[in-house]
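User: I want to check something. If I give you two sequences, will you return the structure for each one separately, not as a complex?

Assistant: Yes, each is folded on its own. Here is the first sequence with its structure:
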Amino acid sequence: MNMSYCRFENTLSDLRDCARYIRTPISQEEAVARRKLIEECYDILQTYCLVDSEGELETEMIAELPVEDEDEDDSA
């Protein structure tokens, strides 16, 4: 198994935590980071055509994102 899966699993957990507290009062420094995080999420969705012109998620495009074959050898 390729250990890069942790990148998305760990980030998903952290992102969910951020979402729970998105409206909580925070320091100015954290507020800047929050804004940058939201902008980055938006940029990802637009850059990779994962939202349509009306801002709706393109579920078919998301489903077509590459997935590593679990039978592949990781020694390469």
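And separately, the second sequence with its own structure:
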Amino acid sequence: MSEEFAEWMREQPNVEHVGKVVVFYVPSNKLDPKIRERLHEFFVSNYSAYTHELGEIKGYWVSKDTMFKDDHERFEVSFCGNENFKKFVSFISEICRMVGEDCIYVTVGEECYLVKP
């Protein structure tokens, strides 16, 4: 989307800009009820909304010459501002530690990050 179009969208009285979209994936088998509730509470209380997708979402990666594969669940949230992003990264780092992952794959717009515990 061009900056010109983005500016036009922000000026529309019937359109509300809610920020940049952030997407991340967590292995399904590690999402126990406690983790699910923690994710839900954090996103609703800090960003007022989120999307959670179940389905045939597969993740593949190679580490130390070994191929790994997991079934994942996808989460999407949007927000504005660096402070909100810092809060998000800190929270995802905590979730990463709680589920015992080396990292969680996060995309922000066209950028990708591995958030570690």
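Because they were folded independently, the notes below concern the second chain alone. The CA atoms of residues 105 and 114 lie 5 Å apart. Helices lie at 3-11, 33-47, 82-99.
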